[in-house]
Amino acid sequence: MPLNACNHPLVQLAPEEAELLARVRQLVAGQIGPDAARVAREDVFAWETFRLLCAEGVVATAFPREYGGTDASMLLRVRIIEELASACSTSASLITGTDLSSRPILAGGSESLKRELVPDLANGTQQAAFALTEPGAGSDVARLAARYAPADGGVIINGRKKFITRASVADVFVVVAREDAGPEGSKGLSAFVVPRAAPGVTVSADIPKLGWHGVPIAMVDFENVHVPRGALLGREGEGMRLAQDTLLRARIGHAAIALGRACGALLIASQYANQRKVFGQSVGSHQGIQWMVAQMAARIEAARCLVYSTAQRYDRGDADVAAHASVAKMHVTDLCMNIVVDCLQLLGGNGYLKAYPLERFLRDAKMNQIGEGTSEIHKTLIGRYVLGMAAQMPQHPCLDFEPDLHCHD
Ligand SMILES: Cc1cc2nc3c(=O)[nH]c(=O)nc-3n(C[C@H](O)[C@H](O)[C@H](O)COP(=O)(O)OP(=O)(O)OC[C@H]3O[C@@H](n4cnc5c(N)ncnc54)[C@H](O)[C@@H]3O)c2cc1C
Fold first, then answer.
1. Beta 147-151 vs 172-179: how paired, if at all?
2. Is the pLDDT of residue 5 over 90?
3. Which atom of ligand 1 is nearest to the CA of 137?
4. Is Oxidoreductase given among the entry's keywords (predicted)?
């Protein structure tokens, strides 16, 4: 049932995978959960949590074995992310954020670049940040304006990136920029690895935000930054392809975070409702409350099946996994927002207090509807996909475009 994902029929894990997941549950119960409010309150990069997740081999799940990782399946990763997010969005986003920032390097880096960089990313001694969004290009990344031009055996990059998670702690940036004299739109985009220490890179102070604390964001400026040819990821013009490949994984990660948080919120609200007395009875003994809980439970369980099956499609390499990832991201992040609001309501006035966890859950939930494609963008993608698919399918056997209008049957 929704409060406990253990032994879910869609999740078959090898013994060592089950062991890692059990360890994550233990960490959530013993350290990460109890520490989550402090981490969020302090709102500086959550080094302690990050180092713990590195030491326990959780960060390494995003990386192939040949570069020091453990090559975890997406299914195992969503289970881990779900467990972390049931108590602490920060720790879950440390896992998804590592993936977001490292994936383009893994997918497009030269062998020598990967050998040099990835083992340190896998063990957490270095960090990367993914710099795609700009002040003038968020949802519409094909219009981004950062530019690069050939110079001295490499390229010179100029531009400003906005909302960059971990910018304040990153050692390297993956920067997507447009070829100066190249085509407009997504075809002109390429991705580069840029060391933070390169002359011309400036990172702003952390930018205050509503929630998602412990993983700060900042603005990053690139002014005549020179990188060698070997910093190019993939081939020239493949920046959008690499970004899409990265965002696909990140979208599944957002859905898993939202699932975990919804599940955690329902557990908190149900335990509160069992304990809190109103009119001489527990809150949970009122039928209206039971119906709310029942609806939330049913929706979470359906969302869980959606997230797990999307992860399985990813692991299988299904051609249409991007559409499924959009469905999971849109549906589960929107659901999580609604569930957290309802769960907070079940705590009455206490739900609104900082001393109780659901106000933090509520602030964090909003982010999942925005990052890696807003809900509106995913609706657009899914709508087009479904209509396109319908156009390819045989006509429905009951649909007649010129029916007999006088027929009663
Ligand atoms: C905490 C946080 C962390 C982030 N981390 C990173 C990071 O590490 N790296 C990075 O590159 N980016 C990052 N981002 C950026 C994030 O991906 C963008 O904010 C997001 O893609 C939305 O872009 P935007 O903010 O420019 O909104 P806009 O694109 O300006 O959209 C504004 C509104 O218009 C709606 N809209 C846009 N187009 C359409 C349309 N066609 N139809 C209907 N509605 C539409 C949107 O849904 C939204 O509601 C982060 C953002 C936040 C808040």
1. parallel
2. no
3. 26
4. yes
The one catalytic residue among 17, 134, 372, 402: 372
Q: How close is the Cα of 42 to the center of ligand 1, in Å?
A: 25
- Mutating to test ligand 1, I would choose from 90, 101, 139 the residue with most ligand atoms within 8 A of its C-beta, which is 139
pLDDT digits (tens, 9 = 90+) for 89-114: 999 999 999 999 999 999 999 999 99
Q: Which residues line ligand 1 (CB under 6 A)?
A: 130-133, 138-139, 163-165, 209, 212, 217, 367, 370-372, 374, 376-377, 380
CA of 92 to the centre of ligand 1 (A): 20
Catalytic annotation present for 372: yes
Which residue in 117, 79, 138, 96 sits closest to 259, CA to CA? Answer: 79
Tell the residue nearest (CA) to atom 50 of ligand 1: 163
Residue 223's nearest CA partner among 193, 189, 198 is 198
For the chain, the C-alpha Rg in angstroms (whole number) is: 23
Which pLDDT value is given to residue 409? 66
Distance of alpha carbon 59 from alpha carbon 10, whole angstroms: 24
User: 140: CA distance to ligand 1 center in Å?
Assistant: 8
Residue 97 CA: nearest ligand 1 atom is 8
User: What is the pLDDT averaged over residues 51-61?
Assistant: 97
Boundaries of every domain in the chain: 15-123, 128-236, 241-390
CA distance linking residue 351 with residue 362, whole number of Å? 10
- The pLDDT confidence band at residue 203, using thresholds 50, 70 and 90, is very high
Selected from 1.10.3720.10, 1.10.540.10, 1.20.1730.10, 1.20.120.910, the CATH number assigned to the domain covering 15-123 reads: 1.10.540.10
CATH classification of 128-236 is 3.40.50.10490, yes or no? no
8 Å CB contact between 307 and 82: yes
Inform me whether the pLDDT recorded for 277 exceeds 70: yes
For 241-390, CATH number out of 1.10.260.40, 1.20.140.10, 3.40.640.10, 3.40.50.261 equals 1.20.140.10
Ligand 1 pocket test target in 103, 134, 163 with most atoms within 8 Å of CB: 163
